[in-house]
Amino acid sequence: MAEISGADALSFEIKGVSFSSPIILASGTAGYGYELEGILDFSKVGAVVTKGISPKPRDGNPPPRIAEFSVKGFQIALLNSIGLQNPGARAFAKYHMPKLKKIPTKIIANIFGEKERDYPHVIKVLESCENPPDAYELNLSCPNTEKGGIEFGVNPKSVQRIVRLCRKFTSRPILVKFSPFSEILPQLVKISLSEGADAFTISNTLPSALWDKKQGFFKGGMSGYPLKPVVLRCVIELCERFPDIKIIGCGGIYNFDDAIEYFLAGATAVQIGTATFLNPRTAEEIYDSLLAELKKSGKTLREIIGSGLKIRSYQKN
Amino acid sequence: MNMFEAKIIDKKEVAPSTFVFNLDCKIGYEPGQFVMISSPSIPWIIPKPFSILSYDDQDGLSILFKVYGLWTEKFSALSVGSTVNLVGPCGSGFITSLKRYGFSGNFSRILFVAGGVGIASIFSLFKHFDGAEKVLVFGGRTEKDLVLLEKISSLGVQVLVSTEDGSAGFKGRVTDVMQKLDIGDFDVILCCGPVPMMKAVSDFAKILDKPLFLAMEERMACGIGICFSCAVKTKNGVKLCCRYGPVFSSDEIAW
Ligand SMILES: Cc1cc2nc3c(=O)[nH]c(=O)nc-3n(C[C@H](O)[C@H](O)[C@H](O)COP(=O)(O)OP(=O)(O)OC[C@H]3O[C@@H](n4cnc5c(N)ncnc54)[C@H](O)[C@@H]3O)c2cc1C
Ligand SMILES: Cc1cc2nc3c(=O)[nH]c(=O)nc-3n(C[C@H](O)[C@H](O)[C@H](O)COP(=O)(O)O)c2cc1C
Ligand code: FES
Q1: If you average pLDDT over residues A21-41, what whole number do you get?
Q2: How far apart are CA B174 and CA B181, in angstroms?
Q3: Among B229, B170, B219, B174, which Cα is nearest to B196's?
Q4: Which of A51, A92, A155, B225 has the least CB density, counted as fewest CB within 10 Å?
Q5: What is the CATH number of the domain that holds A271?
């Protein structure tokens, strides 16, 4: 077999769909993608995951929607409470999809809902539009309004029903995105796999709160540096249990070194979130470093993926 | 919009805790637009928005800012020669916004209203509207908030000052000064300052049925429309302050 080299060495597949780069832009941190045109070289980005889409339009939360978490003069994390503002599936399909399709990368539509049936509903709408996305990512870190606001993604039955329903409406890859709750993830992943999920995005933000003297508590999802060790742990647990599944690592990735840790833990690809805010070219720079490193070491990314798991942990639990 | 590095080529403390930095770069912009700034020496995970005070080939890009919290404190301590990262110009400035609402921009009398460092986003309008008659109502808590007064006057602007403590000009708020003016004579009001001040100016303009354009502020994490943190509620739905704004017609805002 010919040796896989150069940029080709970085491509990967999910359910027959080929992604040219393992560096992806995370949902909610890259708008609808085209906002970054002219700044970012999309040929180095495997896919853009869109801002979350729901059946009906949503205004999102009133401001303030973000709060900054600093420790001893270092800002290490961001809390957001955007409230999933989006124009709704139909408007997204009509106004955003045609523009998105012009970007030279794959498009993954991120979907969320208030009810279980909202997820397949959005897929149905997008599948019937002129320019359907290349894949779907189900954001299950949302409250189920019919079940007292408990997150879909912590209820195995909900996860099962949502993935099953979604699978019926599309033959494209389905990625399931969870919160970083490592204890329950293996069970949820197993169920999702049995219902036809193709890959997993680990993870969403971590539910958190910050105190502000003037404004009181700000509740939101935390992203940024503190997320990395938490999510890495989740990725490790999953890759050890299910060596053949495709995990996309997401949380606190700022540079090549952060990304490599996820690959060592077994991730097939990574998503860049909050880091794009500070440096919109983060994804591109990580891609360049990765390519350079592979050339230097003579290794392929496939050799690196999961290789960290073979090194004995100095503490197992 | 672009991304680039720039060196701090000049730094002045124009009032206590208030600075003008000149950054060595080339940028085209319209008044009211802003840049997102970050610095390798400030350990922060989001960039910060600052209005473009002015730009010319010699002095580069200037920004005017006040130390409010941690980031601005660290930023103010950077020395001349330090490098910063910029993304910009961001947003829709005054000219784009005026056009959006059908104003050609051919005004003969313009009323400007600014509060504190809000002057930064309207400062370059004075040159832009070179031929028009210009009056600025400039308010602050104290005299120290009223910066760049000489420069503004030298641009042929009539300046009326108000301070809440009475340390300079009229003791009171900008709207108190506005009440003394014959607002009917002005074609348009262009304003930037703290949100409560802009709301008061908006109420005032509404009563007198004068077109008012405001440079709004909202917490921002990206400045380029990718994070959805800068929502402004308008009568036409929620808009992003960093792309559709920061300049809005006051009529459109759902106060
Ligand atoms: C479009 C725009 C233009 C601006 N132009 C100027 C300017 O020309 N001069 C100037 O002095 N200031 C300007 N600001 C405000 C400036 O960005 C904030 O003062 C700065 O971010 C404060 O950071 P801090 O960490 O020092 O203070 P903090 O302690 O974080 O906050 C102090 C104040 O700044 C506001 N603020 C905090 N974080 C942000 C953020 N991420 N985005 C926006 N506002 C924030 C807060 O609501 C608070 O009122 C502008 C803001 C916007 C949105
Ligand atoms: C402002 C903001 C908005 C987000 N919106 C979404 C969203 O709509 N759907 C989703 O699945 N994740 C959303 N996320 C989560 C990110 O996609 C990502 O999982 C998380 O930020 C962790 O990665 P990071 O530490 O690299 O930012 C959002 C994150 C941020 C910071
Ligand atoms: S600041 Fe990110 S969308 Fe406006």
Answers
A1: 96
A2: 11
A3: B174
A4: A155
A5: 3.20.20.70
Confidence tier at A3 by pLDDT (50, 70, 90): very low
Q: Which residue of A has its CA nearest to B70?
A: A73
Backbone angles phi, psi at B145, to 5 degrees: -80, -10
The residues near A51 (Cβ < 8 Å, ≥ 6 apart) are: A27, A28, A30, A31, A32, A85, A86, A110, B228
Q: Which residues of B touch A82 (CB under 8 A)?
A: 227-229, 231
A77 inside domain: no
Taking CA atoms, A176 is separated from A59, A138, A220, A234, A248, in Å, by 24, 5, 21, 14, 10
Whether ligand 2 lies within 6 angstroms of the CB of A193 is answered as no
Q: How do beta strands B188-192 and B212-215 pair?
A: parallel
ipTM: 0.95
CB distance B98 to B39 below 8 Å: no
Domain edges within chain B: 2-90
CB contact under 8 A, A38 and B1: yes
Most B-contacting residue of A277, A281, A282, A284 (CB-CB within 10 A), to test interface: A277
Per-residue pLDDT of A91-139, as tens digits, reads 999 999 999 999 999 999 999 999 999 999 999 999 999 999 999 999 9
End-to-end CA distance of chain B: 29
Could A39 and B1 be called an inter-chain contact, meaning their C-beta atoms sit closer than 8 Å?
yes
pLDDT of residue A40: 96
3-state SS class at A129: coil
Look at residues B10, B36, B70, B14 and name the one whose alpha carbon lies nearest to residue B229: B36
Partner residues linked to B13 by β-bridges: B19
Ligand 1 centroid to A121 CA: how many Å? 40
Instruction: Give which of B117, B134, B118 is closest to B181, Cα–Cα.
Output: B134
For residue A62, the chain B residue with the least C-alpha distance is B231
Question: Which two tokens mark A201?
Answer: 């995005």
Amino acid letter for position A283:
A
Chain centre distance of CA B134: 17
Report yes or no: B12 and B80 within 8 Å, Cβ to Cβ. Answer: no
pLDDT tens-place string over residues A198-237: 999 999 999 999 999 989 999 999 999 999 999 999 999 9
Based on the structure, what is the number of domains in chain A? 1
* Residues in chain B closer than 8 A to A64 (CB atoms): 218-219
Superfamily of domain B2-90, CATH level 4: Translation factors (2.40.30.10)
* Residue A63 C-alpha, separation from nearest chain B C-alpha, in angstroms: 7
Q: Which domain holds residue A50?
A: 6-60+84-208+220-310
Of the bound ligands, which one is closest to the alpha carbon of residue A270? 2
Q: Closest ligand 3 atom, CA of B230? A: 4
Contact residues, chain B, for A228 at CB < 8 Å? none
DSSP A95: I
* Residue at A268 is within a domain: yes
Cα–Cα distance for residue pair B174/A276, rounded to 1 Å = 40
